[in-house]
């Protein structure tokens, strides 16, 4: 899961892209980058680390001049933390210069890459984004827009793309609309596209609409964006955007994330109640669901676990050892709120059981009489091939254990999950959501046995 942004027709476009990436830092913390075009050249700055670290030196923005900029925050399923894996990916080719930022996962990456290598392509990374650059460069079409269409026809899986030339910007969303992408208008008349609308709020942009599934937007100098339908849409937005990934203040596919989580919590209280004295969340993404759960039970709610916000999100860390260490570093209980009480602890999801085991122990060490773990999403039984960090089914605790068995493993008094039906009804039945992690429906290609791909 990554963040992408594109800014066109704006003064100081790279600064706007910077603030947008800052607002979406939660979507990826391994590396960040911005490329800017001034009509003649594309310049790129990228590195490992957070947005504020990579762009701490203000002089970097002198390099990134121009009224068009694209940017990327990276999270990956792979442990490699090489600077080569940072985006955007820049290249020089027959028609000039391009830069590409990608959020998603291409399930046919290995097949496409093998064919490209047969044609002489040389790869520097394992990123599927590099496939995109090579497909554009090796296309026989005369115009970039046609090369992009040629490239898109060869992709399978989930993708949101921002492609920058020296004078234009191209924005593409796959026909399933798995990953979110929205269009906004800047105060000075320029445009911005971003993975989440929270980026618009920070830069003072006005939300226009979502980029449609299967749509390409073309931004040119001194003109309105041109829309072209590349595919008939088959809308399957990812349910996990509402459960965990997106910021609570974002609007994803027309729905507020905070409100969606609140409704999930209320539904969870109906499906899996617990006789407790207090409901507490695992901060931060479990807060809204916990409030809903407490409302549903009529039980007091307290923020009884304090999160150290200077420690990153454990779910998107690339290795198990790092995840386990960061759980201990980032969460601390308020003992006087917990001691002697029966606690319901609400988390957004349960993937490997790493975080849950340590949280249960932490609460018991703080004096909790009982710890009832409740999960505001269904059991994750299948690896997602569309951009979520679940590369193998063996890593998923719910794939091999019942809730009762998991409760024993994590030493919880009880464990309950939101049902798939409860999730769908909480989000609304107006869309066919991507529920692949819960139901194993690989509608966009790939399977649970597909090889793991480096997430872009």
UniProtKB/TrEMBL annotation:
InterPro entries: GATase_2_dom, Ntn_hydrolases_N, PRTase-like, PRTase_dom, PurF, PurF_N
Enzyme Commission number, as recorded: 2.4.2.14
Pathway field: Purine metabolism; IMP biosynthesis via de novo pathway; N(1)-(5-phospho-D-ribosyl)glycinamide from 5-phospho-alpha-D-ribose 1-diphosphate: step 1/2
Statement: the UniProt record of this protein carries the keyword Transferase: yes
Keyword Zinc: no
Coiled-coil stretches noted in the UniProt entry, renumbered to this chain: none
SUPFAM superfamilies registered for this protein in UniProt: N-terminal nucleophile aminohydrolases (Ntn hydrolases) (SSF56235), PRTase-like (SSF53271)
Assigned keywords, A-Z: Glutamine amidotransferase, Glycosyltransferase, Purine biosynthesis, Transferase
Pfam families noted in UniProt: GATase_7, Pribosyltran
Positions of the Glutamine amidotransferase type-2 domain: 2-222
A Gene Ontology biological process term: 'de novo' IMP biosynthetic process
Xref: HAMAP family: PurF
Family: In the C-terminal section; belongs to the purine/pyrimidine phosphoribosyltransferase family.
Listed name of the protein: amidophosphoribosyltransferase
Organism for this UniProt entry: hydrothermal vent metagenome
Taxonomic lineage: unclassified sequences, metagenomes, ecological metagenomes
């Amino acid at each position: 899961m990554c963040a992408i942004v594109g800014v066109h027709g704006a003064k100081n476009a790279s600064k706007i892209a910077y603030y947008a990436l800052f607002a979406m830092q939660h979507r990826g913390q391994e590396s960040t980058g911005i490329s800017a075009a001034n009509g003649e050249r594309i310049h790129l700055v990228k590195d490992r680390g957070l947005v504020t670290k990579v762009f701490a030196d203000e002089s970097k923005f002198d390099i990134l001049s121009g009224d068009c900029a694209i940017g990327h925050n990276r999270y990956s399923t792979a442990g490699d933390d090489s600077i080569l894996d940072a985006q955007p990916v820049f290249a020089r080719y027959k028609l000039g210069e391009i830069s590409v930022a990608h959020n998603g996962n291409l399930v046919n990456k290995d097949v496409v890459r093998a064919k490209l290598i047969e044609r002489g392509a040389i790869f520097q990374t394992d990123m599927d984004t590099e496939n995109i650059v090579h497909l554009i460069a090796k296309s026989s079409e005369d115009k970039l827009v046609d090369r992009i269409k040629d490239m898109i026809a060869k992709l399978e899986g989930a993708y949101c793309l921002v492609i920058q030339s020296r004078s234009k910007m191209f924005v593409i969303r796959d026909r399933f609309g798995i990953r979110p992408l929205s269009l906004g208008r800047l105060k000075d008349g320029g445009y911005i596209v971003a993975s989440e609308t929270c980026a618009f709020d920070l830069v003072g942009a006005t939300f226009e609409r979502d980029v449609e599934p299967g749509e390409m937007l073309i931004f040119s100098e001194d003109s309105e964006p041109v829309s072209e339908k590349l595919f008939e849409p088959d809308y399957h937005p990812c349910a996990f955007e509402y459960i965990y990934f997106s910021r609570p203040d974002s609007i994803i596919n027309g729905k507020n994330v905070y409100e969606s989580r609140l409704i999930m919590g209320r539904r969870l209280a109906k499906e899996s109640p617990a006789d407790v004295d207090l409901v507490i969340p695992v901060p931060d993404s479990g807060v809204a669901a916990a409030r809903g759960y407490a409302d549903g039970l009529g039980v007091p709610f307290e923020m009884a676990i304090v999160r150290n916000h200077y420690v990153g999100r454990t779910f998107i860390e690339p290795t198990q050892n790092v995840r386990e260490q960061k759980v201990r570093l980032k969460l601390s209980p308020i003992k006087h709120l917990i001691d002697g009480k029966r606690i319901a602890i609400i988390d957004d999801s349960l993937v490997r059981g790493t975080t849950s085991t340590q949280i249960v122990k932490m609460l018991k060490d703080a004096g909790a009489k009982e710890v009832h773990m409740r999960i505001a999403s269904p059991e994750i039984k299948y690896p997602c091939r569309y951009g979520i960090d679940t590369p193998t089914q063996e890593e998923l605790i719910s794939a091999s254990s019942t809730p009762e068995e998991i409760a024993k493993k994590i030493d919880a008094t009880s464990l309950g999950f939101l049902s798939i039906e409860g999730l769908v009804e909480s989000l609304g039945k107006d869309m066919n959501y991507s529920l692949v992690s819960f139901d194993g429906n690989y509608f966009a290609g790939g399977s649970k046995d597909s090889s793991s791909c480096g997430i872009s």
